[in-house]
Amino acid sequence: MKKPILYVTIGLPASGKSTFLRRLNAVSVYSADAVRGEWFGDEGLQYTDAFIRKQGADPAKLNDRQKARIANPLVWKEVYRRAEQVLAEGKDCALDGINASKWVRKTIIDRFGQRARICGIWFRTEFERCIERDVSRSRSVGEPDLRRIAENFEEPRIEEGFDALEERDETGTLLCRETNESFLPTELPD
């Protein structure tokens, strides 16, 4: 029996990742934004003081960065737990996130590589286009944060441990695909 596929998006905010995944109707999509929306009532919130108190910390003694450092690992732990559950049922799913560093991608590959075939989907949307698209979003990241992410972005390579790595443009059009022997050409959507 073939292992299920875990799709992992890679790209700047507003590059087309979530829009593309919504078109893969048969795939469950998991993201930190969705978990934050459930837990904190708003996808844009990194934490709430009530959540920080529940973790045993005093929010009055912490700055925003410290609070986010408490909340974010727990949010991602929940995202990964949900994906693991679906993969254990033999179903494909996707992790929707920026995944801009090799270290983050290695964490995902190490965690899921034994139970799934991992297909990285890199959205190569131009920086200026991401800025244009971000401005029109209901929850804008903002140019300074987009610039910081872009400056620290590490281009993905199949050698990182992906079973397949795709490059797509902002519309989701396939530009390039590399695969190893675990994928048949017809198993991945164009």
The biggest sheet amounts to: 6 strands, mixed
Q: What fold name stands as the CATH topology of the largest domain?
A: Rossmann fold
Span between N and C termini? 23 Å
Low-confidence stretches: none
List the strand order in the largest sheet.
Answer: 2-3-1-4-5-6
CATH superfamily descriptor of the largest domain: P-loop containing nucleotide triphosphate hydrolases
Strand content: 15-25%
- What's the assembly state of these chains? single chain
Structure notes:
With 190 residues, the chain is of the alpha/beta class. It folds into two domains: 1-27 and 101-107 and 116-190, P-loop containing nucleotide triphosphate hydrolases (Rossmann fold, 3-Layer(aba) Sandwich); 28-91, no CATH class. It is built from seven helices and six strands. The chain has helices at residues 17-23, 32-40, 49-54, 64-88, 102-112, 127-135, 143-152, and strands at 5-10, 28-31, 93-96, 117-123, 164-168, 174-179. A six-stranded mixed beta sheet has the order 2-3-1-4-5-6, with helices on both faces. A hairpin with a 5-residue loop joins strand 5 and strand 6. The relative contact order is 0.21. The mean pLDDT is 92.
Short summary of the structure?
The chain is α/β, with parallel strands linked by helices. The protein has helices spanning 17-23, 32-40, 49-54, 64-88, 102-112, 127-135, 143-152; strands at 5-10, 28-31, 93-96, 117-123, 164-168, 174-179.
